[in-house]
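Students often ask what a 'structure token' actually looks like in practice. Rather than answer in the abstract, let us consider RNA polymerase sigma-54 factor, a protein of 452 residues. Its sequence is given first.
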Amino acid sequence: MQLQRPSFIQEQRLKMNPQQIQSIKMMGLPIMDLREKIEEEVERNPALEVVADHTVLSLDEAYVPRKEENDYFETSSDSGFVSKGGDEESAERHKFLEGALSRPETLQEHLLWQLRLEIAEEPVRRIGERLIQNLDENGFHKEPLDALLKENNPAYIVRALAIIRSLDPVGTCTADYRESLRVQAELLPAPPPGIIEALDYLEQLERGKIAEVARKLARSEAEVLAIFEQIKELSPFPGRRFASDNTRYVVPDVQVIKKEGEFVIILNDEEIPVLGLNPFFMKISGEKGEDKSARDFVRENIKEARWFIQSINERNHTLLRVSRAIVEFQRAFFVNGPRDIAPLTLRDIAQELGLNESTISRAARGKYMQTEWGIFEIRHFFTNSISGTGSDRSRYSKEGVKEIIRELISTEGKHSSDQEIAELLARQGIPLARRTVAKYRNELDLGSSYTR
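Now compare that with the structural description of the same chain:
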């Protein structure tokens, strides 16, 4: 007969309180996300208030006194006059706002506007509108046509495709870049003979195998070179010039400046509102009244507000510590530029500051640093050695070598092959295989020697 007996087991568990969870979440917020989080918390918690916000311009600050001699012109609908001083600044501000508030035209809007100007049957126009709305940022189909238009007249579909592909930009409404290039080549006013057939040998042309392609096309090498030059003028992704979502504006969280021979790290607190506790709530929390539920509500909100303010302070303090450590490890970068960036890992900074690697990663993620050499994501400064994963294996980092490759291509000649670049790097004491050079060149978005 088995008996069940109570027993005690001792084990360790890590349990985080709400304050620690909130602090971890705040640590990973970039400056603009932090601002949105502050706005949400101020709306939610009545015990929290904004003491100062440097990003908001008051009416008194925005007001510019007008000069009496300008009053006459202000009575007309168009004064046609801009004076020096305040009115000129006001005009410049107005011009800036007009540009800032304008929304760039999308690919779909651009194509739909042209489609409406085309003389086409109503069914063709409706199919064309569906096709345009189905395009991605490159100008290619999102959903396959057989699923999108399976119940429509095939003749109407062919007509709509032909119209859209001929609109500006030419070559949209296609399946991929190969079909787009083929459509663009067919619509050229004077296409070189053999260009359509040459599109089947793009990889060989990319590698510079002109003679091989010439034999397959039964044409001279000069003709194939002329065809290849014409192909370079085409756009493999015609819709991308309308892809405004690719443009991303970043606000640096920290700034590094050199002052009297030393580097100074400045936290961008201009974008972060200054928070404080509501005086009315503080007064109520100290009073002794009969309404215990109201007093408990006030005290709970004050406690959460203090936690929130402390979490922001901890985030900023940790970000400054991490930035100072990065500047010390990457001093050569801040003095000489991107090509001298040294190998650095999260572990290096974590050991220096006595923090966990996950904390360093969270503090660096999505945040930017403004330097003399430009604005860089903080994670950009963490880069492995070219000879291994440890930062002590080589004094050359991957990002540093990529910058050297960029300089070599721009200074030593645009037509240097990957092997020639590898030889140039070897002369500088940087042994790198040709395949690695090709990989880094692709990551820099630089074409091969035949396309540069």
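One point worth highlighting: The longest strand covers residues 254-259. Ask yourself how you might have guessed this from the sequence alone, and why that guess would often be unreliable.
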